[in-house]
Hints:
Helix content: 40-55%
Low-confidence stretches: none
Number of strands: 4
Strand order of the largest sheet: 1-2-4-3
Structural class: alpha/beta
Amino acid sequence: xxxxxxxxxxxxxxxxxxxxxxxxxxxxxxxxxxxxxxxxxxxxxxxxxxxxxxxxxxxxxxxxxxxxxxxxxxxxxxxxxxxxxxxxxxxxxxxxxxxxxxxxxxxxxxxxxxxxxxxxxxxxxxx
Length: 127
């Protein structure tokens, strides 16, 4: 069973049902049917903190993915438990800028960023 958890503050409104559906579609299309993913909609300050701590840069990222599995962090999946894929952080103010610039709905942009982050959790990267 897929488990998708979303956290957000009231000042970062989003259609969580639609967001979960988009992530669920990406996961099922790639055969991930028993896993957990968490998504956090965060502000600029938090996203900068995450970038500085984990990416070692000062760039304001639109989305960051933090895989829970892999050799790098030694994660072991308990038998019979769903795989914990990891966490995705989406910068709400950056998503808003993209939506305005491209004349798109906020929920569409947030969904695209969540899909992008999900692909990274699955090990699909870009240049």
